[in-house]
Amino acid sequence: MPESPRRTGSSSIFTIPSPLRQLFSHFPLVTYAASELPVRCPDEESRTKNTLHVFSSPTDAPRGLPSYNPTCLKWQVFLRLAGIEFETVASNNHASPTGVLPFLLPRAPTAAIEAAREPEEKGTELGRIPLHHRAVLPVASGKLEEFGLSYDGGAGGKRVGDVEGVMRAEVYQSLLDTRIRCAWLHSLYLAPENTELLGRLYVNPISRSYVARASTLHSLRRAAEAEILRATGTAVIDAGAIYAAADEAFEALSTVLGEDDWFFGSEKGTDTKAGGEGATEKEVDPRSKPSLFDAAVFSYTHLLLDGDMAWQDRRLAELAAQSPALVRHRDRILDICWSEPVK
Amino acid sequence: MELHVWGQGFDLPSIDPECLAAITFFSIYVKPEKWRLVQSSDPSVSPNRTLPALSHNSRWISGYDDIIRHATTSNDVLVKSVPCLAPIQKAHLIAYTAFIRKHGAPLISLSLYVSSANWVGSTRPLYSKILRFPLPWTVPLFLRSRAHSTAAHLSLSSLDTDYVSPKEKDGSNRQQPAAAADVFNRNPTLESLRTRMHAVTGSLTPDVRSHIRLDGLASDFYAPLEALLRETNMGKTFIQTGGQPTALDCLCYGYLALMLFPELPRRFLADSMNRKHKELVRFTVMMRNLSRKNGDLRVSNSEDGMGGTLARFMDSVADKMPGGLGDAWQRWKRLAAEGKLAGNSVVGWEAYDVLHLAAQILGATLVGLTAAAYKGMLGLGPGPGGHKAWERQILGLGGKGEAGKMFDMAFEAL
């Protein structure tokens, strides 16, 4: 039997052809020295503060202005309501260890905390490393609620209520997660009139190249389409139905808020229990505390009602503006979090 | 009125929760002589390609919410009036509707479609009965892949033993997302505790672990519903209306019935409900009796001819065309349907779509050519004889015109 040419060692599929081998043997052509860290990198001073990384413009972020991304804004507002001091940093998804914004870099422990550490902890191998030399682990958005609730607001006790276990809040949260989110995605990403706004917020900061921008815009739109189709469970994106559903959702939220200051204030039963265990003497009306749910509602209503957003297709913005209760709710939070007039 | 739905199964008139909900509402509230059920199992009957769909005076309405709205506002079709709701009750109805869809649909996807045991043992054989030959070859696979994407965020795809996630295809580890999240949880002082916990979770088989998670997920869905049931009307209906079911009760029944009644090889949803949420079991059984009170449904099968079935089969094959063509075809169909809904006759293609498709075809051609060139450099022909034949082809091309010359030049350069 004649031997097939494949058997011979020189012509296996894994052998690199000699022209290619010669070409690659020239590399690396030049080796550059390592470049310095970018100026924006956190220095020693900024490590003494909590920093929240959000979608924002480089001019808005240092002033702590509201983020233009609903999820980021929700956490930004929640942390502000909780009374936590932090700086906002304009960032993007690639910067986040989990791939999603926001995330919070807690401040490095100060010398006082270092001194107060338990001696036996210092005995361990890990304990010998000073705390401020250890890498500070970022807090992902999933853990931010815990982070915010664990913060003691000082004189007035905790400033935010806990909606964990309030079933009605969980149920109404699905209104925000499905109906309002779908309408938001449609309005910002798919409505052709809002292309300019979408470009200003998410596309233009990425690159100056026309091709890169067109490609980013295209993939953002495709992702939004897929997300809407998945959330509505339909085969077709029916804009009329999406806005009608969002209208119903805003109406339901407005009804359930009614004349109250905060959502589900009367249902935070857990709050009084916690007060009984602790040393808090005075009975605080639980309705006087906002919660994560309020921040979530605000994150949509504020961005829809905010004049700076420059919506061209105003369908969703008008739906949000229809409810006086939601407009009042938005103004109330804006007053607390950004008491000095924005801009 | 004709109500088009997915076909029957599990001793229920439809195996889709939304369709089942619509059927329940109609059998309780709509006069039997005014409507009939068509088990067409074909979403393309309606303009926005969704079931359930209602055809009334040659007008199409699809989606549960719109169908109920249409039925309750039409003249002279209702047996009795649907209860009027106070504003806060209406708000609850809307919120709980959204809640049921958001949390119920992924659970049903997991139980009926994603779980290999249930899919092979129950759901797939059912579709073979519901759909006409040769549709059972393609449509159930499409439904299953959609169910996968519905339930993807629960990261329980391990229930499907044949499923390979895109990440694993690349050869990376299944545990990767969990490991990335773990970076955040790591706290040096808790390290030892964590190792001990890992030892506990590590000793559990993947089956047991996913069972624990499933039980938790099911309870997260059942508990708020049961709480609402207890709150109003002593567990009879979800909203205080004097025992009259509302659109919410029917929708909830649609989902709960498909969790409770099917006889599946893996009955995790039913077990969890039976064990911990007796009120919901009572409610579901009560609703089933109520919907059967008005006698049998008037069912007619779809009168699609063989031609229609074949066209649908070819269409579903086209959806799976490789190299991005299938996706482009699906997208074209969707855009055409959306255009019709909005009243435009022109399909809303973006220039980018066309460019994208052209680039894909060009890219595939280039990859092919490069592979051929690489193979040529190695001298890896199909064999000594075949190699000659291949050279002849190139020479032949050279004699035929511009394109051939270009090929020749390209190979000489190499």
TrEMBL record, chain A:
Family matches, as Pfam families: GST_C_6, GST_N_4
Looking at the record, the residues that make up the Thioredoxin-like fold domain are 70-107
- In its UniProt entry, what is this protein called? Uncharacterized protein
> What does the organism's lineage look like at the top?
Eukaryota, Fungi, Dikarya, Ascomycota, Pezizomycotina
Q: What sequence ranges are listed for the domain Metaxin glutathione S-transferase?
A: 288-333
Q: Which GO terms describe its biological process?
A: mitochondrion organization
* Organism encoding this protein: Zalerion maritima
Q: InterPro entries recorded for this chain? A: Metaxin_GST (IPR033468), Mito_Protein_Transport_Metaxin (IPR050931), Thioredoxin-like_fold (IPR012336)
Q: Name one GO cellular component term.
A: SAM complex
Automatic annotation (TrEMBL), chain B:
What Pfam family does this protein match (any one)?
Answer: Tom37
Q: Where in the cell is it found?
A: Mitochondrion outer membrane
- Keywords, sorted A to Z: Membrane, Mitochondrion, Mitochondrion outer membrane, Protein transport, Transport
Q: Which CDD domains match?
A: GST_N_Metaxin1_like
* Sequence ranges assigned to domain Mitochondrial outer membrane transport complex Sam37/metaxin N-terminal in this UniProt record: 19-142
Q: Which GO terms describe its cellular component?
A: SAM complex
Q: Which InterPro entries match?
A: Mito_Protein_Transport_Metaxin (IPR050931), Sam37/metaxin_N (IPR019564)
Q: Which residues form the signal peptide?
A: none
Major location category of this protein: mitochondrion
- What are the GO BP annotations of this UniProt entry? mitochondrion organization; protein transport
Q: Which residues form a coiled coil?
A: none
* Top-level taxon of the source organism: Eukaryota
Supply the name of the protein.
Mitochondrial outer membrane transport complex Sam37/metaxin N-terminal domain-containing protein
UniProt source species? Zalerion maritima
